[in-house]
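Long-time lurker, first post. I've been practising inverse folding by hand and with some scripts of my own, and I keep getting stuck on stretches where the structure tokens seem ambiguous. Below is the full token string for one chain I'm working on. Before anyone asks, I'm not after the true native sequence, just a reasonable design that respects the backbone. If someone could post their per-position residues I'd love to compare against what I wrote down in my notebook.
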């Protein structure tokens, strides 16, 4: 086993143990987790620190706009997921005799962009947790400290509600090989298309080789996974911010979906349980 494999295996093992602890949380319990974590990345002092660090580390954007982005994304997302069912029976069609039950995907690997290294993992994390999943972030190499601080704040929220801290982890000293290995070992991958195409180089080829098919318009069809706008992380509903507003970096601030969920087991070869790759 290579050093990269060992490093990722250790993270995944801790994530699996943490996820198993919350797999049978009630809706009320998981909603408390989301609220506690969300507050940590909405509170004024914390997001000011995150915004300043992101601008300093990446050289992109400005503090004022990044603070606004945190406020808008996190508050909007908390409103979206409030009251949404993600545990047990979530939909029933009595006429057809069909009942849908939410099921965790397991451990999700999330690639984060250098353009938005704090608000994106913060918002993605809430929908991932809402589905009773664990997450391991693979930050852009030029935004590691920003991701680390975001994760630190969110883990603080987990501790406040006595949820396992290892539900949220990140790769320190990130690299393309480590991101590739993360995608091989987790159950589901969540990535922004720009991250896959540009920031992580040949990771895109790994994705395209694991059940992802690129269309003529560069949209991706994913085997075993509902596409953007089709499902929440581990459930049937997606709760994301739409709109397509453009922020100060020229990046869409309102992604079509923050997380994508699993319907059944899927058959993506790169994922043992989740069945594929979800792209924002």
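-- Answer (accepted) --
I ran through it position by position. Result:
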């Amino acid at each position: 086993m290579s050093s990269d494999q060992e490093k990722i295996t250790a993270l995944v093992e801790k994530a699996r143990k943490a996820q198993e602890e919350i797999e049978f949380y009630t809706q009320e319990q998981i909603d408390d987790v989301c609220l506690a974590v969300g507050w940590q990345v909405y509170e004024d002092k914390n997001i000011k620190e995150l915004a300043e660090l992101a601008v300093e580390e990446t050289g992109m954007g400005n503090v004022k706009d990044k603070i606004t982005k945190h406020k808008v994304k996190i508050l909007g997302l908390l409103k979206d997921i409030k009251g949404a069912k993600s545990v047990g029976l979530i939909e029933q069609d009595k006429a057809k005799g069909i009942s849908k039950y939410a099921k965790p995907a397991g451990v999700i690997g999330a690639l984060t962009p250098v353009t938005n290294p704090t608000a994106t993992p913060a918002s993605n994390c809430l929908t991932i947790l809402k589905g009773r999943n664990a997450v391991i972030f693979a930050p852009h190499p030029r935004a590691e400290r920003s991701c680390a601080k975001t994760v630190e704040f969110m883990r603080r929220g987990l501790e406040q509600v006595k949820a396992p801290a290892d539900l949220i982890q990140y790769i320190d000293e990130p690299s393309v090989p480590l991101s590739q290995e993360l995608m091989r070992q987790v159950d589901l991958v969540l990535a922004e298309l720009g991250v896959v195409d540009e920031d992580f180089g040949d990771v895109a080829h790994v994705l395209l080789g694991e059940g992802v098919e690129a269309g003529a318009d560069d949209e991706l069809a994913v085997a075993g996974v509902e596409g953007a706008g089709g499902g929440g992380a581990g459930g049937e509903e997606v709760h994301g911010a739409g709109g397509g507003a453009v922020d100060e970096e020229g990046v869409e601030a309102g992604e079509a979906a923050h997380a994508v969920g699993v319907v059944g087991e899927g058959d993506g070869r790169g994922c043992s349980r989740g069945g594929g790759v979800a792209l924002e």
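A couple of notes from the structure itself: The beta strands are 88-93, 98-102, 107-111, 134-138, 168-170, 188-191, 212-214, 220-222, 276-279. Confidence is low (pLDDT under 50) at residues 197-280. Happy to go over any region you disagree with.
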